[in-house]
Amino acid sequence: MKESFFRSMTWLHTWVGLLLCWLLFLIFFAGTISFFRHEISLWNQPAVHSIDHNKQQQQTLIESGLKYLDRAAPEANRWWIGLPSNRQPELQVSHRHTQGEGKRDKWIDERLDPNTLSPVEGLIETKGGNFFYRLHFDLHYMDRKLARWLVCFASLFMLIALISGIVIHKRIFKDLFQFRPQKGVRAWLDAHNLSSVLALPFHLMITYTGLITLIFMLFPNPAETLYEDGLKGFRADFYPERQRIDASDIKVNYPAFTAAFTHFYQNWPEQKIKRVIVDHPSNAAVNIKIYGDNGTLIRDEYPYWQYSGTTGELLKTARLDPSNAEVLYGGMIAVHSGRLAHPGLRWLYFICGIAGCIMIASGCIMWAKRIRERLKPTQTASFGLKLVETLNVATIMGLPLATAGFFYANRLLPADMVARADNEVLTFFLVWLATALFTCVFRDKRAWHWLAYSNAVVWLLLPVCNALTTDGNLVTYILDGKWILASFDLAFIATALVFYLQAKKLAAKVTVNKRVVNKSPRATAEQRA
Amino acid sequence: MSQADNALTLRYRLSVLSRFCAAIFGGYFFTAYSVALLSLLIPTTKVDAVLYSVCASILIYSCIFIAVFGVRSQRWIWSSLVLSILGLDLLTRYIQGGI
User: Where are the transmembrane segments (chain A) (predicted)?
Assistant: First the structure.
C-alpha cells in the first residue's frame, strides 16, 4: 500500500503490533506463567507441600483409588482418578453426580496422600495455576466464546507482526550481536530486536500452535464439508472416548476391575497410566476407561483403552498408533502446551516466553517514545499518545504487581473464607485496577519509577510472607530437596532484583530529566501534560 | 509513516479501514472456503483430511493478510478476493456433487 513492499511491511508491522499489544502482553504473560501451571497449583496449596514423593506402585494406587471411590461415592455417575506425577504429588480422586433435570452435573474433587491413602487435610479453595492458564485464552469476567475470538485475533495480529517483522529486518543476523544501551530509542530498538530474534522460532511456534489449539472454533469448515453433522460427527470420529454412555437401570455390585486391569497389564506391561475414568460405576452401563501417559512424547491426546465394566472385556482402543495427520495436529498442540517438558526444557519455555513479553513491551514503549521525540516543544501530546503511554505502564508494570497480589491473597486470605478462590482472583484484578488508576494520575516517568520500586519490594517480601504463613521456607526447601518450592522463592527474589535494577535505572533518568526541566519552565509544563 | 502523519485525510483513513477489512474478513472467508476445498482434495481418511486442512489454515490466512497489505491496488484486492471465494465455493459444491 506504500511505495514499496518493504515500506508497506514496516507500516503493517507498526500497526498490527500496536493495535492489540496490551491484550497480547496479557496473553503472553499469563501463558508464560502457565508453563508452571501445576507447580503454581502446588505452591498455592500448602497442605500438599508436606506430601512425600510417591513411593507406591501405580497398580496399588489405582486399586486404592477405586476402593476409596466405591466407599465415598457409590452413587456417582462418573469416577475420575488422576495419578500423581513429579509435578502433582497427590492422588486425585473426583466423582460426578447427577443433579436432576436441566441442571449440570456436579463434580466433587478430593485429594489423597499417595503414601497413606487418606484424604489430605487442611486444603484451601484456590484456582492455583489454572487461573493463569484460563486467563491466557478465556480472559476473565467475560463471555468465553467472545474472549476466545478476541484472543484468536490478537494472536493472528501477533503472527502478522512477526512475519512482517522478519521481512523488514534486513540485518537479522547482525542485530543479534548488537545492543547499544544508553542510546534512547535505539536501545529500545535493540532490546526489541534481541528479544524477538533470539527466541524467534519460539515466538513463531507458540503463536501458530496457539491458533491451532482453537482452530475448530476458527475454521470448522473442513469438518462441516466432510461430515453431515459437522463438528459433532468429526469429534465422534476423532475422540471415540468422549462419546456419551447412557446409564442403565440394572444395578451392578462392584465392576469387573480385576479382569480389566489384568488384561491391560498383561498386554501393555510397559505403559504408564495417566488417569482412569469409570462411567456409571453402579449400574450395568459401567465402562472402565484407561488413559496412557504420554511422558515426554510430542503427543497431545492420550492413548486410550475402554473396557466393559461388567465382563472386563476390551471394547475399544484409540490412538495407540496415530496417523501422520494426528501426529502433526497433536504435535502442534503438544509443543504449545509444553506438557512434555522436563524441568530444564520447561525453564527454557519460560525464558522464551519472557523474551516474548519483552518483545511486546519494548515494541509498544518504542512506539510511544518515537512519537514523543518527534513532538515539537510547542505541541501537546495527542490523546492517542497519552492513551498508549498510560496503557503501557498499566499493563507492563501492572500485571506483575497483580500477580504478586494473587500470591499474597493466596497466603493471607482466611482459609475458611466464602468464595475464597474467587477472592484471590478478585485481588489480582483489584491490584491491576489500582495500578491503572495510579497510572492515569501520574503518567510520566514517575509512574514507571514508583511501580518498579513497588514491584521490587512486593516480590522481595513474598518469600518472607510464605515463610511466615506456611511451615516451610527457602532453607528447609533446599535442605529437604523440595526444588519446586525452592525455585518459587528464588524466582520471586530474582524478579524483585530485576525490578530493583529497573527502578535504579529509571531513578537516574528521572534526576536527569529534572535537571533539564528546571532550566526551562515551558518544558516543565510539557513534562506534566 | 511520516507520510501518514502529514496526510491523515478521510480518504486515507477509509483506505486503511478498507484494507483491514479485506485482510481480516476477506482473508478469513478466503481461508475458510479454501480449507473446505482442501479437505475434499486430500486423498486420505476423513479425520486426517480435516486435520491436515485445519493445520494449513493459519498459514493461508497469514499469507492473504500480508498480501492484502503488500499489493498496491485496492480494487484488485477486493475483486480478486471476492472472485476467488466464489470460485472456491463453486468448486467445492461441484466436487460434492451439488451442481
Answer: 12-36, 146-173, 194-219, 347-368, 389-409, 425-443, 450-469, 481-501
Question: Which residues neighbour A345 within 8 Å (Cβ) at sequence distance 6 or greater?
Answer: A338
Write out the H or E segment, with its range, that includes residue A309.
none
* CA A467 distance to own-chain centroid: 26
CA distance B79 to chain A (A): 16
**Chain centroid, CA A303 distance in Å:** 24
Hey, is the C-beta of A57 within 8 angstroms of any chain B C-beta? no
In this structure, whether the domain defined by A239-337 belongs to CATH 2.30.30 is answered with: no
Q: How far is CA A366 from the centre of its chain?
A: 27
DSSP, collapsed to helix, strand or coil, labels residue A274 as strand
> Chunked in runs of 10, what are the mean pLDDT values of chain B (99 residues)?
57 91 96 96 94 96 94 92 96 85
3-class secondary structure per residue, A376-411: CCCCCCCHHHHHHHHHHHHHHCHHHHHHHHHHHHHH
pLDDT band, residue A172 (cuts 50/70/90)? low
Are B69 and A9 a contacting pair at CB < 8 A?
A: yes
Q: Mean pLDDT throughout A506-517?
A: 66
Is residue A235 exposed (0-12), middle (13-18) or buried (19+ Cβ within 10 Å)?
A: middle
Distance in angstroms (rounded) separating the CA atoms of residues A314 and A305:
7
CA A464/CA A461 separation, integer angstroms = 5
Burial of A414 (0-12, 13-18, 19+ CB in 10 A): exposed
Q: Given the C-alpha cell 486425585, which residue does it identify?
A: A92
Burial B40-65 (b: 16+ CB within 10 A, else e): bebeeebbbbbbbbbbbbbebbbebb
List all residues 6 or more positions away from A408 whose beta carbon is below 8 Å from its beta carbon: A427, A458, A462, A465
Decide if the complex's ipTM is over 0.85. yes
As a whole number, mean pLDDT of residues A299-316 equals 93
For residue A174, the model assigns a pLDDT of: 59
* Residue of B33, B58, B71, B88 to mutate when probing chain A, most A C-beta within 10 A: B58
Q: Rounded distance, CA A175 to CA B18, Å?
A: 35
